[in-house]
Design a protein that fits this description.
The protein has 448 residues and is α/β, with parallel strands linked by helices. 34% of the residues lie in helices and 22% in strands. The longest helix is centred in the C-terminal third of the chain and has 24 residues. Bound molecules: S-adenosylmethionine and iron/sulfur cluster.
């Protein structure tokens, strides 16, 4: 492409908030924009098109979007032809769209999660429209296959295997913004992964809100364990990861698939959310503390060395000190390898938002800090078990802090740093762990 042509190309900037699902949706937006001859840029000032792909799982994420949108007002005044688009989960809520129309009328385009595939048409219509264009579909349609995407990181790729969620945990907005559970056709998933592998991908992470219920909406008789076994057959693929697994739907078949398939990594993300049966019940999680602990134990017995990570919410309405201590006890017992911890955030439209006995903010923060302390202690203990052990690491690049240090992940999803030459990037290396720390491990190259 000549320089003159490059200069004429329009540039886009995407800011992505929230989970891997959103990151992957942004990759699809980037793919569609690349087909429209747009170039990515890394600052808003240079962009002809700015997209905010939003998340609404917690209030903080929403406030950040509003704050960042407000900052665009001056830029839009300076560059009136620049297009500002806002999409993603937040837009599936009518009160959010109304708020943006009122407070940020300079936004040009609003669209939702169910009509992302229609973005090229929306963008074209928006360019011809004098006023803000809003198109948010209330209901999900058919799954749209074959959307182009520009992957952020070639060695590793996200592959969505299902959309939506049927579980309606009482605190969670996702079922309202992402719609009902729909599984992708296994042939489409296999085709996508084979293409990725042909283009250099070594590791895929299969995404879904509850991957264990994969297949329920399909005519074909296939479950998640069966899908893993088929993906495991793909030549050239080295590693398979997946998230998230809902504890209520974990089957023996899945645990055996992790055990039997050599490409499936020994790691399970198993959000517990709370350690008290009272709270689990009001959260509508559909398992008890005892059932959860049995699952963790079964997984550890069937797959020795498996790492277990989790999500925990503190300060759910009605959570007493005793309930919280049940969570602390469970965390001590499991000794997680890692965790995402959240302070309960009221989400309008969910049953928990209407519950009495909301926990005061200072109590939530205090519990959050106490929980982190116990979690980190467990993580440090688990990591110290790896001292002098040799682990397989997929080398992802150089460390952010020191360009002579390489960084990668173990099959159990732990970050490992070690000294080595850049030609190891993209390779699987055996590394002896010499210094295990809480948030990363340091090691030495044993062989390639
Ligand atoms: N589907 C996954 C599952 O059930 O484990 C998780 C999806 S959700 C986007 C990610 C995490 O956000 C949840 O596991 C939960 O811990 C947290 N979360 C969801 N709603 C929340 C809320 N209202 N307040 C605080 N944390 C919340
Ligand atoms: Fe939300 Fe529960 Fe569905 Fe996860 S399983 S997305 S927490 S409703």
């Amino acid at each position: 492409m000549n320089t003159e042509n490059t200069l004429k190309q329009k540039r886009y900037f995407i800011a992505t908030y929230g989970c891997q699902m959103n990151e992957h949706d942004s990759e699809k937006l980037a793919g569609m924009l690349s087909n429209m001859n747009y170039l990515e840029c890394d600052n808003k000032e240079e962009a002809d098109l700015i997209i905010f792909n939003t998340c609404c799982v917690r209030e903080n994420a929403e406030l950040k979007v509003y704050g960042n949108l407000g900052q665009l007002k001056a830029l839009k005044k300076k560059k009136p032809d620049m297009i500002i688009a806002v999409c993603g989960c937040m837009m599936q809520q009518a009160h959010v769209v109304e708020y943006i129309k009122k407070k940020h009328p300079f936004v040009d385009l609003i669209f939702g999660t169910h009509n992302l595939h229609n973005f090229p048409v929306l963008l074209s219509n928006c360019k011809q429209s004098e006023s803000m264009l809003v198109e948010v579909w209330d209901e999900e349609g058919e799954i749209i296959e074959g959307l182009p995407s520009v992957r952020k990181y070639g060695l590793k790729a996200f592959v969505t295997i299902m959309y939506g969620c049927n579980n309606f945990c009482t605190y969670c907005i996702v079922p309202y913004t992402r719609g009902r559970e729909r599984s992708r056709d296994p042939e489409e998933i296999l085709k996508e992964i084979k293409e990725l592998v042909e283009n250099g991908t070594k590791e895929v992470t299969l995404l879904g809100q509850n991957v264990n219920s994969y297949g329920k909406s399909l005519e074909e008789d296939i479950d998640f364990g069966g899908l893993l076994r088929r993906i495991n057959e793909i030549d050239g693929l080295e590693r398979i990861r997946f998230m998230t697994s809902h504890p209520k739907d974990i089957s023996e078949n899945l645990i055996f698939a992790i055990r039997d398939c050599e490409k499936v990594c020994e790691h399970i993300h198993l959000p517990v959310q709370a350690g008290s049966d009272n709270i689990l019940k009001v959260m509508n999680r559909k398992y008890t503390r005892e059932q959860y602990l049995k699952l963790v134990n079964d997984a550890k017995v069937a797959v020795p060395g498996i790492s277990v990570t989790t999500d925990i919410i503190v300060g759910f309405p009605g959570e007493t000190e005793e309930d919280f201590e049940d969570t602390l006890d469970l965390v001590k017992e499991v000794k997680y390898d890692n965790s995402f911890t959240f302070i309960y955030s009221i989400r309008k439209g969910t049953p928990a938002a209407e519950m009495e006995e909301q926990v005061p903010e200072d109590v939530k923060h205090n519990r959050f800090n106490r929980l982190l302390e116990v979690l980190n202690k467990g993580v440090a203990e688990r990591n110290s078990e790896l001292k002098n052990k040799v682990v397989e690491v997929l080398v992802e690049g150089v460390s952010k802090n020191d360009e002579n240090v390489l960084t990668g992940r173990t099959r159990t999803n732990k970050v490992v740093n070690f000294d080595g030459s850049k030609d190891l990037i993209g390779k699987l290396c055996n590394i002896k762990i010499t210094k295990p720390r809480t948030f990363s491990l340091f090691g030495e190259l044993v062989d390639k």
